[in-house]
UniProtKB/TrEMBL annotation:
It holds the Pfam family Pyr_redox_2. GO terms for molecular function: oxidoreductase activity. This is FAD-binding protein. Keywords: Oxidoreductase. The keyword Protein transport does not apply. It comes from the Bacteria. InterPro entries: 4Fe4S_Fe-S-bd, FAD/NAD-bd_sf, FAD/NAD-binding_dom, Metab_Enz_Cyan_OpOx_G3PDH. Residues 386-419, 422-452 form the 4Fe-4S ferredoxin-type domain. It comes from Absicoccus porci.
Length: 529
């Protein structure tokens, strides 16, 4: 039986972070993961992270994964792949299946970072080929370069459903609708808005009646539901699709902890069956810790911090650091984690209906029901300003933990303040130079540069653009509104790409002046003049 100071189960963001932190303190660490590649969900995540610098904000998930792997290698962490942990026992002994053989390992401390699995819902035809989970769609697209389908219906409006819907569009899929049985969109409004402005319709208080087809999906019928989630007769809607994508939540993969005898609880706010643990991840069994989604569903940014906490706690438990060093490091991590757990989407607010922002501004009800803020509603938010010349327009309308725009502006035009969940504000005393760094840095693609006085009768709008092929200067097409409706003809007057933008291209279009605060997406296709 081989022995290690610390055994980590799961090579995702929390597991790798825990292993790195412990290895830096001198522990002999091994990480077991059942997959062929380490990194967990990070390598599926091509979008930019939220938070602040310390949370790796504005960096794409797969880049964070690459960084963690390099850091783990440098720290001397041993990572064993294709290794399925079959058993965990109170004495901190594990049985691991590697290459069809069962191996026994002993850890002086154990960190379980097994993550979560996708939930499914049942409906008539749910077992047909073509009904897939959102995570499976991400794997196909972002890891294997395989298009999941041509015409897709997404069920679920949480962050996963919204993010994957956008990535399906980037992949060239036609997302025919985004559906959710809940009466309100569950994810970040900025994620919903970037989907809505491409023209994808939202159907809230709707769910799937049946998937159609004999040997694969050929269509789907949805219907409206009442307050008891019962179908309302006569509200059925049909879509021709070849793929139904399900993003209906995650459940912690906590089976090993239950097997070991850790005290568990059924906690719906944390995703289901989770271990009872302290604020730094120690379970009811001394020396067994948890980190990441296995202890409660949150974002990957939170999981990485939790992993570092567990690694520090295990290091102190085994005597590699003293309590003073542990507590000093943990206090800083507590502050970083607490920052991510503030605002409208804080764990304490789960299930609550938030009516106003922290600043006292009424939340856009249209955003919650249809995915976009109306032209009238957008004017009440502090990031939306009017002035002569080019200036930022920040359509960030919810208190979410994110502040890269504040640091990105070289002229300090944008202010958020000490709380990273505060709505961004334009400093009227500062002059925007139109560099576009704020546009490129915004993880929610919610910042635009507007010049309402570009020409006598025209305004220019610089927007984030992450689709291929890129339009070219001189291309003509249609400007789409926040709802995705065509509103006027538009001409591309500039396209900027830079390594500093990290694959977010800056597309500048010219539109009639009256559409300066309405046009938010460009759709090519008109013949060039």
């Amino acid at each position: 039986m081989k022995r290690y100071d610390l055994i980590v189960v799961g090579a995702g963001p929390s597991g790798l972070s825990a292993a790195i932190e412990a290895a830096k303190k001198g522990l002999h660490v091994v990480v077991f993961d059942e997959n062929e590649k380490p990194g967990g969900q990070l390598f599926k995540q091509i979008h930019k992270f939220f938070g602040s610098k310390e949370h790796k904000a504005k960096i794409r998930g797969f880049k964070i994964g690459e960084s963690l792997l390099a850091e783990a290698d440098e720290a001397g962490v041993e990572v064993v792949l294709n290794a399925t942990v079959c058993g965990l026992y109170q004495e901190k002994e594990l049985t691991v299946r590697i290459h069809d053989q069962i191996h026994h390992y002993k850890g002086d401390a154990i960190i379980i970072a097994t993550g979560a699995s996708e939930n499914m819902v049942t409906f008539d035809g749910w077992t047909l080929p073509g009904v897939i989970g959102a995570g499976a769609a991400q794997t196909m697209m972002n890891l294997h370069g395989v298009k999941p389908g041509n015409k897709v219906l997404m069920l679920g409006s949480g962050n996963v459903g919204l993010v994957v819907s956008f990535q399906l569009l980037q992949c060239g899929c036609d997302v025919v609708a985004l559906v959710d049985a809940a009466p309100r969109i569950g994810g970040y409004g900025v994620h919903a808005a970037k989907v809505a402005r491409t023209g994808v319709p939202f159907y809230l208080s709707h769910t799937i009646v049946k998937a159609e087809g004999e040997d694969h999906v050929t269509g789907v019928t949805i219907a409206e539901v009442d307050s008891h989630f019962q179908f309302i007769p006569g509200t059925e809607k049909h879509f021709d699709v070849d793929t139904i994508c399900l993003a209906v939540g995650l459940s912690p993969m906590s089976q090993l902890l239950k097997m070991a005898g850790c005290e568990m609880e059924d906690n719906p706010k944390r995703g289901g069956q989770v271990p009872i643990c302290d604020e730094h991840g120690q379970t009811s069994i001394p020396g067994i810790y948890v980190a990441g989604d296995v202890s409660g569903i949150e974002e990957a940014s939170s999981a990485m911090i939790e992993g570092r906490m567990a690694g520090l706690a295990a290091s102190e438990y085994l005597g590699f650091i003293d309590k003073i060093e542990r507590d000093t490091s943990l206090n800083a991590l507590d502050l970083a984690l607490d920052a991510l757990r503030q605002g409208m989407f804080a764990p304490k607010n789960k299930g609550k209906k938030i009516e106003k922002t922290d600043e006292g501004i009424e939340i856009s009800q249209n955003l919650l029901k249809h995915g976009y803020v109306t032209d009238e509603e957008i004017e009440r938010f502090p990031g939306v300003t009017h002035r002569v010349g080019v200036h930022p327009v920040m359509e960030c309308t919810q208190n979410i933990p994110c502040n890269p725009c504040q640091d990105a502006c070289p002229m300090h035009c944008i202010k958020i303040g000490e709380h990273i969940t505060s709505l961004p504000v334009v400093d009227e005393e500062k002059q925007c130079i139109g560099c576009g760094m704020c546009v490129a840095s915004c993880s929610g693609q919610a910042i635009f540069l507007v010049n309402e006085t570009y020409e006598d009768d025209y305004a220019s709008i610089t927007m984030p653009y992450e689709f291929l092929p890129l339009p070219s200067t001189g291309d003509k097409g249609m400007a789409l509104s926040r709802s995705g409706a065509p509103i006027c003809e538009a001409e591309v007057i500039d396209v900027k790409s830079s390594p500093a933008f990290d694959q977010t291209h800056l597309l500048t279009i010219k539109v009639p002046k009256e559409y300066a605060m309405k046009a938010r997406f460009f759709q090519g296709g008109l013949e060039n003049a």
